[in-house]
Amino acid sequence: MPTVREVMSKDLVTVERAATVSDAAAFMWAQKVGSALVIEEGRLLGIFTERDILKSMTVGADRGRTMTVREWMTFNPATIDAEATVGEALDRMLEGSFRHLPVMEGDQVIGVVSMRDLSQSIAGKP
After folding, report:
1. Where are the beta strands (DSSP E) in 8-124?
2. pLDDT tens, 74-87?
3. Of the four, 7, 46, 69, 92, which is 20 to 30 A from 105 by CA?
């Protein structure tokens, strides 16, 4: 079974925790990703996802124009080791009900694996 390292995205899409939800959403859309990492001084602080954007849209009339990523991101997100198997990553995602996992090598983030990456790997698609 392939490892997470073999199927993960190595392009880290990051946002500042002080960014507005609207700006972060526009950036994620332009990058064609469903999540962005919040990293400060080389340390993973959190993850901001499509679900966070949707949740923020349900609160008041602000609609993300002044609310920040900090208010909606998941702090200290679950992660997976780069050498874990695709099956282990899938189990972790299903147990946690999430679709993106930061991939770690030691204490460094080296990628992100998505549910799409895993399903394509399992289906044998590049």
Report:
1. 35-40, 43-49, 74-75, 80-81, 100-105, 108-114
2. 999 999 999 999 99
3. 69
